[in-house]
């Protein structure tokens, strides 16, 4: 059986890189509006870079939300999350930014994001942020 060689040019943007670069959170209509139910999404391969050292930071993200009128499409959140892999951003900022972007697109009744970063230099960081739709309406 003959082997097939795959050749790629390092100067050519790969299709996955293009999808990540162009990533946007996409929603679709909630199939059960009016029913309160939780959606739990675990993203175990989150990466960004430390803004001070440039070293990579790895985390598992846990997103739980109760949809109102819209549900977020899973592939779009995967690509959106991957768009942070080369960004130099603090743990606290990235966690808040992800939740802000999610809320802006999905407008859930409730959302909670937990970012559990792998220990580095003997320091283990966990950031948790929440959003409640009534908080937005009362402000």
TrEMBL record:
HAMAP family: QueF_type1. Pathway: tRNA modification; tRNA-queuosine biosynthesis. Belongs to the GTP cyclohydrolase I family. QueF type 1 subfamily. Keywords: Cytoplasm, NADP, Oxidoreductase, Queuosine biosynthesis. Its main location: cytoplasm. The keyword Oxidoreductase applies. It catalyses: 7-aminomethyl-7-carbaguanine + 2 NADP(+) = 7-cyano-7-carbaguanine + 2 NADPH + 3 H(+). GO terms for molecular function: preQ1 synthase activity. It comes from the Bacteria. It is an enzyme of class 1 (oxidoreductase). Substrate binds at residues 72-74, 91-92. Catalyzes the NADPH-dependent reduction of 7-cyano-7-deazaguanine (preQ0) to 7-aminomethyl-7-deazaguanine (preQ1). The lineage of its organism: Bacteria, Bacillati, Cyanobacteriota, Cyanophyceae, Synechococcales. It comes from Synechocystis salina LEGE 00031. Signal peptide: none annotated. The keyword Kinase does not apply. It is found in: Cytoplasm. This is NADPH-dependent 7-cyano-7-deazaguanine reductase. InterPro entries: GTP-CH-I_C/QueF, NADPH_dep_7-cyano-7-deazaG_red, QueF, QueF_type1.
